[in-house]
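TEACHING EXERCISE
Course module: macromolecular assemblies
Task: Read the component lines below, then compare them to the predicted structure of the full complex.
Student: A.B.
Group: 4
Components provided:
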Amino acid sequence: MHDDLNWAIGGEAGDGIDSTGKVFAQALSRAGRHVFTSKDFASRIRGGYTAYKVRTSVDKVQSVVDRLDVLIALTERTVEENLDELHEGSVIIYDGERTEFSGFEVPEGMVGLDIPLKSLAEDAGGALMRNVVALGAVCEVAEFPIENLDESLRKRFGSKGEKIVENNKEAARLGADYVDEHYADDVGTLDYELETTDNDYVLLNGDEAIGMGAIAAGCKFYSGYPITPATDVMTYLKGRIEEFGGHVVQAEDELSAINMALGAARAGARSMTATSGPGIDLMSETFGLVATSETPLVIADVMRSGPSTGMPTKQEQGDLNMLLYGGHGEIPRFVVAPTTVADCFHKTVEAFNLAEKYQTPVYIAADLSMAVTEETFAPEEFDMDAVEIDRGKVVDEDEISKWQNEKDQFKPHAVTADGVSPRAFPGTEGGVHMSTGLEHDDLGRRTEDTDERIEQVDKRNRKVETAREEEDWSPVEYGDSDADTLVISWGSNEGALVEALDFLEEDGVDVRVLSVPYIFPRPDLSTAVEDAETTIVVECNATGQFADVIEKDVLERVDRINKYNGVRFKADELANDIKEVLA
Amino acid sequence: MSSDVRFTDFKSDKQPTWCPGCGDFGTMNGIMKGLAETGNSPDDTFVVAGIGCSGKIGTYLRSYALHGVHGRALPVGTGVKIANPDIEVVVAGGDGDGYSIGAGHFIHAVRRNIDITYVVMDNRIYGLTKGQASPTSREDFETATTPEGPKQPPVNPLALALSAGGSFIAQSFSSNALRHQEIVQKAIEHDGFSLVNTFSPCVTFNDVDTYDYFRDSIVDLDETEHDPTDRDAAKEKILDSEKEYIGVLWEDEDAVDYNTAHGVEGNMADIDESGAPEGATDLVREFY
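Instructor-supplied answer key:
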């Protein structure tokens, strides 16, 4: 009996692929099953191939695999696009009544379920529900009671009225009945049975987790400009952050977005923007101003394939060098890199604390794969009670005199041992000061004095040293800690790598995995690299940007696995890649 | 806001490095007096500037201030105003900063009707880079980079503001100290985005748009029958390229400013430092 299922619905953009996929993913999650979704989409509104994939198991799933068990093909192209992942015994659900399927032949060894999706949908009340008919069919194939769809159908269609919800439930039932009536023998031999559990799961993607983390951290101001795949952060916050006294502005461009966020931060708000690579380019000039004016700001870069406009809807981790080194001059900054959807929440909370404690910009290096991937988690993973807020050295009117010079002028860039100066928000009596992108003295006023220049540069850089000592930058470890092979990863590759361990274990290959969620400052990996016979750095870019950084740190060559075709790592594929390096 | 504020409270102890006779002195004095007269204090005021001669204002005018990057002062001011609506926000810019590199932000700040006062020190030239044509330079204004003149019409900032739905559009001349102060005051008092395009002559590089030129050619709207609440009359004057009007050309007293329209109130600097805000747990529930 199979409990794991890799399922997809594919067709043209505009066919309702996403919402159908989401309904099924939510139904599985609500039924206490683990879910991991991924999307193949093109950068266009209508037309073009698009697919929503769902992997589900009662056990934790945290990556995609090179396998597709059940496919709802709304177009014949959907079958072609997924032929590599389909296997003997895979089920293809299609509507043979559609003209484009005339002459369609089910690939050999696969189970074709020709279902009149549109006609059945019309019987249930409208042709639009053909995807739901197909979902009902999938439930029958996978022995997953269709009642499990009820709540997610209600969530999806409830706003349109009870009648529509009932019609959809009926559509699902017609789909299931059709399979039972015509294909009971075919699907019976597949022996699927998706078990339900009492587990209590939530299903969300990385962009949503970043948005939720921002609210949890007390972020009140968000300004952004729509860009794939970061837009969902703004979509999430809009309509929610207001309930917590915050506000979202859709700015006229990324330059405006970061400058608005900077203004709000100067006014004392926890403030953030999110964008993708091209937006980071545009923000770079102001990024320097943020750093030199010592303004706390959180900037999420949800990476996609570059350079230039690259492949906007495809995965890549190609912006690392820019996040580490971008901007003219030398800029103290932090770069945190969440490794899972849930980690997007935690790292965002942390980013706000780092930003305010050290009065620096903090980059969140997220990527498309985690941003658009929905994953199930126990709700405790988003523990609001565990959220801590550290606003750093904010001074009020009572303490202000400690930070004034003999002329009662406030020193926003006072030179301190830890590199961190006091902050006074506008409205604070006695805290009046200016800030500037020009090199300045401790009062914030322009200077070209050579000693003051060195003092201020050292002071700003000292914050990073303080943070290195005060914060925990440890990587997360998986696998066999005594293994000769060390695999280092950052960002969303963690899930695939963790699952790859199982495949490797089957082949007797022991691996130690370090998943690094902090790029700058980062953990000291030198001992781990020295202890290993082989070190492999896994990342979704062509040149091995993180591998370069590690080599510089450890003064040792490391091996690399790079993937840059626009698709995230798959667990089984990654296991093979690792074996190849070791061979 | 304290009532015993004097305009000298807005003066820093830094001596301006503007050229002697620069129009920016008068423009800045008008801002300081306007702020003091409207009852603001340096503690409750935020001044933002971009790059260029105008950008230096934050050093000489004493208030909370940010001297930002070229052309982006308005977005910074917008962020400050949304995050704390109680703060009086004044943005100072130059014609290059505001109408060239920052033109996009200008249009959008106008249409957003964010309650900030935008004073543009318009000297119709790039001064700090030593005398190139600016977006408000005349078509035949000869400079090293435009030896035969820009050969393109100057930007009309007032027309841009009007077409973008501006709710307060004024023009001023830095040399007319009292009149300038009065116009800035009205701009500060206006609830919404206020543009005060201020003729602020560059005595070093612009020998065309000089004090004498403006003195001879400006028409003060207070000496005419102009009604600033008459949009058509404002339009006519704004599009009149023959005259240099000063005064309030247009004020829409019914316009609703951004924060009011969006229900933004309260100081966003105030957050619960004990942990996630109350009700945050409900956010997780949404994902069931």
